[in-house]
Amino acid sequence: MTAPDPAPRPDAPPRRRPLWVAAGFLLTGLGVLGLLLPGFPGTVWFVLAAAAFSRGDPRWEAWLLSRPVVGALVRDYRAGLGMPLRAKWIACTCIAVAVAFSLPRIPVLLGQVAWVLVGLAGVAYITMKIPTRRDPPRGA
């Protein structure tokens, strides 16, 4: 795999490139929080950060893609490889736990129903829309 051209892409006006880089760092920060906090996704923020960096300065995109865990997640997403089955289980479990723990804090029944529907939509998206990557068995 060759490194991307370090020159910024021409589709981003020069005055907006620093804003794209700033957005990339903000999204990277949210991604790090997602790795640390249960129920808060991390991968989506890293994918968005890579997209922002690609518009602002491809050197930062290359830096993000070179990170050990994060880079593989973003590259797999871009390649359409999907999520490992274990990651899908973890994501769906985190959604269910987050909805269950936050539900009593919502005082209105309509809000509770809406919150459960949001959680179900997230689980449905993960299970039905994101491809499941089948990793080879360990030792193979």
From TrEMBL:
The UniProt keyword set, sorted, is:
Membrane, Transmembrane, Transmembrane helix
Q: Which superkingdom, per the lineage?
A: Bacteria
The answer to whether UniProt assigns keyword GTP-binding to this entry is no
User: Does Cell membrane show up as a keyword for this record?
Assistant: no
Q: Which Pfam families match?
A: DUF454
Sorted alphabetically, the Gene Ontology cellular component annotations on this record are: plasma membrane
Residue ranges annotated as transmembrane are 20-53, 109-128
Q: Which InterPro entries does this one have? A: DUF454
What PANTHER family would the database entry show?
A: INNER MEMBRANE PROTEIN YBAN (PTHR35813:SF1)
Protein name from the UniProt record: DUF454 family protein
